[in-house]
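Give me C-alpha cells for this 290-residue protein.
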Amino acid sequence: MNKTSNIILLLFLCFFNLASCSQKKQGLKIVKSFFSAQIKSDWKYKVYLPAGYHDNKEFKYPVVYLLHGSDGDEHDWDFIYPILDSLIVSKDIPPMISVSPSTGTSWWVNSESIPYESAFFQDLIPEIDNNFRTISKKEARGIVGFSMGGYGTLRYALGYPHYFGSAMILSAAIYDNLPPEGSSARTSGAFGIPFNEKTWNDRNYPSSLQYYLKNELQVPLFIATGDDDWNHEEGFEYNVEQQAVLLYGKLHKEGGCPAELRIINGGHTKDVWSRAFIEGIQYMFQYLHY
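Here you go.
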C-alpha cells in the first residue's frame, strides 16, 4: 500500500473511530472573546480542549494555533476537530489544545488600521497561556495555517522562531515575488491603501528567510498543497503548488532547515487540508515536546 493510500485509509479511520467513540471521547469546543490592548477591542477565538481536560486540574497540554484563510473567522477550522479527536483516541498524537482566532482578511499582519500581528504575540498568546493549562514554552507550541493563514503561519514561524516548536502550512498563499492581481493581499488594506509594493516586499517571506537562515533557532515545517490548486492567468509561477516547491527548495534544500513537502491530488479545498493535516500534525509532534 502506497503513502497516498495510507493517508486515505487513516482519514477514513479517523471518522470511523470518531463515530464509534462515546461523547466522552470528543473534545470540547468553546467560543470566547477577550479585550485586546493592541486591537483596542474585543477579539474572538475558538478553543478546542481535549476530552478529559477538566478531569485532571494539574495536567498541562501542548497548544497549536490555527490560522484561517481570507474572509475567515473562528469557525473555519471546525472540519479539523473530528480528526483531532480521532488521532488523540488512537494515540497518534497526544491530547492537545488548539486555538482558532478570527481576523477576517487580515493577512495576519499589522495593517494601518488593526495590528493583528502584534496582538497575536502580545495579547492572544498570553490570554491562552493565562486561562488554559498550556505548556507555555516554544517546545510545546505549534502553528498551522491554510491559504492566507498559511502566509501568516510562515511569517510567524520565520520571524518569531523563539515562539514555536513546529509549524504546518496548507495551500499557503505565498509568493516569492509580488502577489497576483486577483489576490486579496492587494485589496484588503493589509499592505497599504492602495497596495504598497515595498510594504509587501518588506513583509514577504524571502525577506524574512534571509534572517531566519542565520538564526540558530529553527521551526520544522510541514508544507502541503493540492496539485489542482488555482491556475493563475498571470502564469503558472503563481500557482500554489509551484510556490510550495520553491519555498521547500529555499528553506530545506538550500537552507538545510528541517521541512517536509507533500503535493497531493486535489484543489484549494478542505478535503486536501484534512488529508494533509493528518500526516502534518503527526510530523509536528515529532518535534513538539509535552
